[in-house]
User: Fold this.
Amino acid sequence: MKTATGTMLIHNGQILDGTGSDRIMDGAVVVESGVIRFVGPAREMPPIAEDAVRVDANGGTIMPGLVEAHFHATYFNIRTLEDLDIKYPVEYVSLLASVNCRLALECGYTAARSGGCLFNVDFWLKKAINEDLIPGPRLAASGREICSSGGLMDWNPEFRKIGMEGLVFIINGQDDARKAVRALVKDRIEWVKTYPTGDAASPDINDHHTLCMTFDEMNAVVATAHNHGLKVTGHCRATEGIKNALRAGYDCIEHGTFIDDETLELLLERDVPCVPALYFEKASVELGKDFGLSQRVIDGHQETLDGGIESARRILRAGGRLGMGGDYGFGWNPHGDYARELTFFVKDAGLTPLEVITCATKTGAEIMGCGDEIGTLETGKLADVLVVDGDVIEDIAILEDRSRFIAVMQGGVIKAGRMAPKELTNVTVNG
Assistant:
């Protein structure tokens, strides 16, 4: 991805640097050739060139670009599980995914970590974004997901005589697990997504307390993935499924819904981050009936919502790490609503705005594996910056309103917001 040339000054706003430190009032950020060279009080700012580009924060907030840590670019207004594997061909899925990527960037998300995708679209999205062919967040790509036969993601009955090849690898045992990971290695993805447990969406066969993979299968996935430099994550709701994932060596936990003392100790010992993705549960409870979800399914989502809030609080209060990502792409939880996850964690889960912003920037970048490049406003890092017209500490819901964004930057290039040029091809950049 190309970076801006010249010098830029971002000023006249409070700075939230993403590290968890207190805000800097009347702050300034100086960017040179797309890299941050100064962050601090405006009165301490070094001299800058007269021709520097100036971005006025209008008394608002200067902060790192947001990181969506559970991003499904290839999901598009899913209403039933079957929409995921037989609704559209890969060509149309790719087009829809590119639209979702642009939307994420416009919503202030300058980076994202995939939580699973259809076909192998994510890898090619990442390539297109990095080569500036399409706008979108910096992307850590995953690929087709891994689930045991009869598990949560294996819903097509045998009589249909169709597989799940566009969405998941269905495995039976360790050999199948290794074979699936090796196929993903060839796809050149970074994250292997698995399904150790079920979900409230499948109350009759694979509910949120059901295990959908054996420990041996999970261990085989991790050993093979790590051998090739890939990371592993998993959809983990049931307590035993979370434990199995941690014991097997997973690099991240998705959801971590029902965590007990032993599991929390394991999580902290290994410093494994968790992405609760709880706004999906809230939306399922509040809007599920409008989309045909049964009361039984809705009740299950309420249980996972309550359990997930408690587990997320426990993890953060104990010194663990949470990423922010809302499992968007469903009809009742559509792309574009990403920042509702942040508001939820403040207003419903009781976290402070500063805690949530740290989770949505610094921790998200760490989960992606690029915390040394992005995620905080610190000298030497890339200028992935979000400039907001308003005080997000006083009202974090401002981040839900794209019209409040003055500038969304990647490497100092303004890609979205009020200051974005109508045609990005006119922006002066270098390789």
